[in-house]
């Protein structure tokens, strides 16, 4: 597989094996329906140096099998020119069925088998069956058909590889899942050994194939089995340095201190292979220090640690407001930055380790800290209003105060509802029989890929859904993850989210208006004439008499700015009938960052529809072009948190580009109109009104969907099973 820095060989593998092991599910295999695999570029047969020219007739037959020319294959077989009992050269023993399988020609495969081709014929120098050839290249449809027609999954080639080993070797997670659900177990042990005692899990770990490793571990693959060199899957994962693989194996119980036959543990191997950083990060994600010992956790219950993280911003904001109210502005700014930095470091060192490792999320942005900032802001605003503003201004401004109380109440209630709301989760399917039925149905219709089958929850993916690692579920009509409410936004809480944003903005404006009246009262009571250069009299009075209230008001007004941008973005998307996720995906497509191979699609052309065939033949933008790959900076992260990242797209949609072009937003972020845009009137009705037309109008407007049924194009649809969009005609007057 590789050699360590000491120069000592770890394992003796062939060059072809080393090349195959470089593939991983992080770099999925693309569909290869456009070309064929010939004997010059197939490693399984080892026929690169064959001597002698093939018989012209046999060569024509092979070429037809490779290219999927069923007309020629039928003609040659039915005319008797080709005998399916001996349709190969005695030199290489590679049948037409082999060539059709390795080139993903399902139509030819079906014809050959139906006319008597031996489905278990062992050919090539490795005595591999057509099933082995198809599995090696990840062609799940071919594998499925061969097994249905009697292919024996227990057979091995001369290398000692069975179909499960070769499925792992293909790094197509769709085939791996198929093999685990339909082959592993009764037919074949999930821990089947090759001649060097390597299990499928060990091969997947060496390849750095995190998706296959995760799937194997879920099916209880043994992570403690070692190969003939004493290497466990964790040892080989450390050699490769793929963090997610190392993390998954350690989480499964793999021993980081276990030694190989050469008396080397993972720490020694990581130093020799220069993967120490990967090992350390994986250990940290599992709640371990860089030396493999457990991190100190100051909270026995992760929920207590989350609560501290959630409430810490309230204290931090109070300290910052007090600093600005008490000392020089520049000094207060410096001390505030230091306080924020110290709070972040303290949380990361003392609090976050108690729950981040258990939740599996290492991102600080997916902690309750940001929701705590929002709650802390609301609480300090309420404190200032109750303790100071309300008493002084209610008599003169009762309407403003009552309006603030109403919107603040709505804001706080909706905030806590959003924290615990169900965004429309489809949880993981545990019934294997149902999963098998789903896989078989998707294979039948040519949709068994990661775009249509969720490899995390094992269910068919509805349109407009996305898997969320935060909720460990598929979210229907997924919009985005919002750190400010510490939850995903989807079908069942999207409307509530917009009501929350609206109430926050209006409430903050009412608070600012009441504060200005409060400062005016302070100015009148002081009998002083305050002058502060650019500030008006009321603000100047607030700065001199009650700076704490002034800075709380300024902070509230600052929130209005970015929340208004976020709300504008969201409202625009409801008018267009799209979600933030769909808008981002269109943008990725435009920049060539969304390749079909991401979906592990190996659908034979026989089963592709017109759109898929068209997409397969279209050229794609080079996703490696650095001009299109924008690195994530602090500014872009801030824009993502506040929703400002999509504002330029919206402005371009309304006003055109700087050159005066009047292109629509659809043209700018993708090709053609959004499929979910049914006209602005219909889009707004679909979003804001419940699908239950028997309910009162006020109820349809205020309540969110309680299940998965909602309106789409004025019709009730079930978003849990929305696999195709209903056809629609868009009236010209509804175009936006």
Automatic annotation (TrEMBL):
Its EC number is 2.3.1.225. Residues 1-11 have a biased composition (Basic and acidic residues). It is a multi-pass membrane protein. GO terms for molecular function: protein-cysteine S-palmitoyltransferase activity. Keywords: Acyltransferase, ANK repeat, Lipoprotein, Membrane, Palmitate, Repeat, Transferase, Transmembrane, Transmembrane helix. It is an enzyme of class 2 (transferase). Residues 1-49 are annotated as: Disordered. ANK repeats lie at residues 92-124, 126-158, 196-228, 229-261. Belongs to the DHHC palmitoyltransferase family. AKR/ZDHHC17 subfamily. The DHHC domain is required for palmitoyltransferase activity. This is Palmitoyltransferase.
